[in-house]
Amino acid sequence: MSQSVNPKAVVFDIGRVMVHWDLDLLYRERIADPDQRAWFIANVVSEEWHRQHDGGRELAAMVAERKAQFPEYASLIDAYAEDFLESIPGEVDGMVAILEELAANDVPIFALTNFADTFWTQFSREHGWSKHFRDVVVSGREKLLKPDPAIYALAEDRYGYPGEALFFTDDTPANVDGAREAGWDAEVFRDAPTFRAQLVARGFLPA
């Protein structure tokens, strides 16, 4: 634990914490050959390219530019824009139960996610458990990405808690480091049992 005083609120990342995410799933049936699919995801619709949309770049402009660069893959690039949620196959085991347990115990719960605004709107409609978050800072909406220090400062302002009052979990070590540098208590996400133990240690949940 990185803080000497127990925090007061819990902040969740979403992708690869609450839900699985894998661009390969979006293209598994569209590109049958695994080597060709791996090349496409590394070079055309890549996580690095997708991160631009997470950061607030307009989807239509991104897609048009990419299709101009790779016209032979135009329909596959369109699939990213039209069917992105196919890359999210479901919840990480045990995490919705933990979220609901925290909510039942009146723990203040928030989310801080690198997520495109357009995709978040659809995603949150389809995942009713997102209603438990008192506020969600969405990178694409704010045009700020973790681990930019500005997004942690914005989150503190939105949530109404100082950094030392927040416990944050994220699957990306750089994002956890950014939170710690902002004064938050933060841990790299491993799995639901480990996360629940961390919550128990901080007094959020009973053993």
Automatic annotation (TrEMBL):
Keywords, comma-separated and alphabetical: Hydrolase
A Pfam family it matches: Hydrolase
Protein name: HAD-IA family hydrolase
PANTHER family, sorted: ALPHA-D-GLUCOSE 1-PHOSPHATE PHOSPHATASE, FLAVIN MONONUCLEOTIDE HYDROLASE 1, CHLOROPLATIC
Molecular-function GO terms, alphabetical: hydrolase activity
Cited InterPro entries: HAD-like_sf, HAD-SF_hydro_IA, HAD_sf
